[in-house]
Design brief:
With 829 residues, this protein is mostly helical. The chain is built from 28 helices and eight strands. The protein has a three-stranded mixed sheet, with no helix packed on it.
């Protein structure tokens, strides 16, 4: 037997021994210890690697890679903001709402940029040795830095620039903005400036317009010269702007008046319907009268049925009562004839009790027994005959007693009637008819027996009362004493009801349309109605002249709308330009207007320059960061000696400042030496502005603006292309409303919190929001709030996402900013 060949029995025996089990257990424990040691060794090696990276570069590789990626990602929105700011600040028709939107975008992005910058500078060494600790510190920095930068920018601009400005500076800023607008409208030209407002605006033109206001603002001499010609400039500027947009204004007016004519057609149809309703009054009166006669006829038929039923019920009782009463009177006569004294009284009492019980069985009012008797008249001849016959039979005794009775004043035995009873059923029926009549009156609703004809029923007082009550339920109000014989009052009541119904329907229709107008207005009257004029005013906005009619041709439109607006707008501009400087100070009449002009003049060039510098710095620093990533990756793999490491550190101490200086030179010097455009060439008239700045000790500003004019047109198209591909501004618009509300809640609009004003924040005031459009059946929706849009709905100041749709039209979605002085917005499809 060899060592390699064991018998099955021996192998099985060895496997079952305690020694083999211990060996297997020990082997498992050894593997666990080795695995744990390997894990510890890996962690130690990783920690040593990170420590080596931190020793080499001050930061671990993963953190530098994260900052590199964040810098690349940040570069895209910063470039997009730079392009968007140029589009807005250099736009021909940019509004305060557009500036507000791009301002929010820029402040948000700059907050992120500063957060990344400080995180990259501050977080190093042990703070970033572990992932969890590094991310915790980064989150803490973001929570502190982003709000500080976001709100700090706004506060610094308001506090150190806007609020700190003098009235002269504000007035000069306002004039510079007017001149910028005049340049755009070609109302004023500067010799040597190659600017054509009719040419499509590229990045160069937009950059030029962005800084032009600042150039004029910085030249006190030019402003002083232009002030002498301000009236001529203003008149031409306002006229040129009005006439340049004349076709657009008249087109909007023409579209609206067609819509208004359609509204008048609907109004005329409603008036016609209203008139037809009033004219239907006689017909309606006949219908109501016919219903009334039918009601009377039905009442008469019911009355007749009630009488017949009553008679049948009475006859049935009479047939039962007749024999009972006949027997009763027979018995009573026998008591009277045969009984005497107390026996007679008991007999009468017994009969009376039986009578009472019998009467109670028939559910009729109690009738005394004698009421059933028949009064029978006795004639004189019968009295005489009876007296003679009785006297003969009594041998003259009765006659003697008659004579004595006559002497004493008696009736001498002569009676004019006697009470008799019968078993005739008709007699008992007649008695019951009279005695039970109250039951009939109750059953008939108040009518008595005995009405013989429908005419008598109609003229009965109760019939008029019942008809009047029924008519009142239908809305016909007649006097309580009205009778069916009074048709004239009936017709008047119907006419009143028809008029009330027509008026109610008219008011309801007008309310649905948001109007409150009387019917039957002519086209001329309709146009001049207050509600229509309000609608025209919302459509025409600042062009509105009272009253504006909707049937003017283009010549009348120019005469009645454009010319008065030119005069008014010119006067407004001149009032501002010729106002005393005190009017531009805090609390002055033109404080808000001038501050807005100053903001539009100074802030865009500053923001654009800073943004452009950040974009370029980030782009140029990315290669350095990439090189550092490679270096830190190789830091551990190299086995250099201490001296070489020290030499490399010393070398880097000089290399980084040199590279940084080179980058700054590349950013600020290279564009001015290598590039130029029509606005920065030496022969350009803009050199005059730059020279004036340098003379006024503003060489730095002159250099910055010149650099901006050269560099910005190169970078701006890149940002625009990025935005078209990545839709960054659209994405920000979708989330901007919460940021806007947060901003207004923390720091209300500057104009409402200025030092000389004590107005309440605009966010706390409800303002009417009105959206006008050029399509009559367009649907307007506010996408960022729950309430459904209604014209004039009251909302807090702030931004609102408006969506306008119409069948067959391309939907438009636009942000508008509701303010005290801006509540009506026009969005055309």
């Amino acid at each position: 037997m060899t060592e390699n060949k064991q018998s099955p029995f021996a192998t099985n025996l060895l496997n079952k021994t305690p020694t083999q089990q211990k060996m297997q257990s020990a082997e498992k424990e050894l593997k666990k210890v080795q695995k744990k040691q390997k894990t510890i060794a890996d962690k130690t090696e990783k920690a040593q690697t990170v420590e080596a990276q931190i020793t080499k570069m001050g930061k671990p590789f993963w953190w530098m890679l994260l900052m590199f990626i964040c810098s690349v990602v940040y570069l895209f929105p910063e470039a997009v903001f730079n392009a968007a700011l140029t589009d807005v600040a250099g736009g021909r028709n940019s509004s305060e709402a557009d500036l507000r939107a791009v301002e929010l975008f820029g402040r948000t992005i700059s907050g992120i940029g500063v957060t990344l910058l400080l995180a990259d500078l501050l977080l190093k060494g042990k703070r970033v040795a572990k992932v969890g600790r590094a991310l915790g510190y980064f989150t803490l920095i973001a929570l502190i830095v982003w709000p500080t930068v976001f709100f700090g920018q706004k506060w610094m601009v308001d506090h150190f620039i806007i609020d700190a400005s003098t009235p002269e500076e504000r007035q000069q800023a306002y004039l510079s903005q007017v001149l910028r607008s005049a340049l755009i409208e070609n109302s004023i030209q500067f010799e040597g400036i190659d600017y054509d407002p009719n040419r499509e605006h590229n990045a160069t033109e937009k950059t030029f317009l962005s800084v032009f206001g600042g150039l004029v603002y910085a030249d006190d001499k030019l402003v002083a010269d232009l002030k002498q010609k301000k009236r001529m400039i203003m008149e031409k500027f306002v006229r040129d702007r009005a006439m340049a947009n004349f076709d657009e204004h008249y087109g909007n007016y023409d579209d609206f008046r067609q819509t208004l004519r359609g509204k008048y057609t609907e109004y005329a149809e409603g008036s016609n319907k209203y008139n037809k309703a009033l004219a239907s009054s006689p017909k309606r009166a006949d219908e109501y009268w016919l219903e009334t006669q039918n009601q009377v006829k039905q009442g008469w038929e019911q009355y007749q049925k009630g009488v017949n039923a009553y008679e049948a019920r009475v006859e049935s009782r009479a047939q039962k009562i007749a024999p009972k009463m006949h027997d009763f009177f027979e018995r009573r006569n026998k008591c009277a004839d045969k009984k005497k004294g107390s026996s007679k009284d008991r007999c009468f009492e017994r009969l009376q009790n039986g009578y009472d019980k019998e009467i109670a069985k028939y559910s009729i009012p109690y009738i005394p027994p004698d009421d059933w008797l028949i009064r029978e008249e006795i004639s004189t001849s019968e009295n005489v005959g009876n007296s003679i016959l009785t006297g003969i039979m009594t041998f003259g005794l009765f006659t003697a007693m008659q004579a004595a009775d006559a002497v004493t004043g008696g009736d001498a035995g002569f009676k004019d009637h006697r009470m008799v009873y019968t078993n005739d059923v008709n007699h008992y029926k007649n008695v019951l008819m009279v005695k039970m009549e109250p039951d009939f009156i109750k059953e008939s609703g108040g009518y008595p027996l005995g009405i013989q004809s429908i005419h008598a029923f109609r003229v009965h007082e109760l019939t008029s009362i019942k008809v009047n009550k029924k008519l009142k339920q239908k809305g016909l109000n007649l006097h309580a004493s009205w009778s069916l014989t009074d048709r004239n009052s009936f017709d008047n009541a119907v006419d009143k009801k028809v008029r009330q119904q027509a008026n109610a329907e008219w008011r309801s229709a007008m309310k649905k349309q948001g109007n409150d107008m009387p019917p039957n207005l002519s086209w001329q009257q309709f146009q001049k109605e207050a509600d229509v004029q309000k609608r025209i005013q919302r459509q025409m906005k600042e062009l509105y002249v009272s009253p504006t009619l909707a049937d003017w041709n283009n010549r009348e439109f120019k005469q009645n709308i454009i010319e008065p607006n030119i005069a008014r707008k010119t006067t407004e501009y001149l009032n501002v330009l010729e106002a005393q400087k005190a009017e531009f100070a805090d609390g002055g009449a033109f404080e808000s207007t001038a501050k807005s002009a100053l903001r539009a003049t100074i802030i865009p060039p500053i923001s654009m320059s800073i943004s452009l510098a950040l974009v370029l710095l980030t782009v140029l620093k990315l290669p350095m960061k990439a090189v550092e990533l490679v270096q830190v990756k190789r830091a551990v793999s190299r086995n250099s000696d201490q001296d070489s490491n020290e030499k490399s550190h010393k070398a880097k101490a000089f290399i980084k400042p040199a590279v940084s200086a080179t980058l700054l030179i590349a950013i600020f010097a290279v564009p001015l030496t290598m590039g130029s455009n029509q606005y920065t060439m030496k022969g350009s008239a803009l050199h005059y502005f730059f020279e004036q700045m340098e003379k006024n000790d503003s060489a730095t500003i002159s250099f910055a603006l010149k650099w901006l004019l050269v560099t910005q047109p190169i970078v701006q198209p890149i940002g625009s292309s990025i935005d078209k591909s990545l839709f960054i501004t659209d994405g920000f618009d979708a989330i901007s409303e919460p940021i806007n509300r947060f901003d207004l809640a923390m720091m209300p609009e500057h104009d409402s919190t200025s030092t000389g004003s004590k107005k309440k924040p605009s966010a706390a005031v409800l303002l009417p929001l009105t959206i006008s459009t050029n399509v009559a059946n367009a649907n307007v929706a506010v996408m960022n709030i729950k309430p459904k849009y209604q014209a004039g709905m009251m909302l807090p100041a702030g931004g609102y996402d408006i969506k306008v749709t119409a069948p067959g039209r391309t939907a438009i979605r636009k942000w508008v900013y509701l303010k005290d002085n801006e509540t009506d917005f026009n969005i055309n499809l």
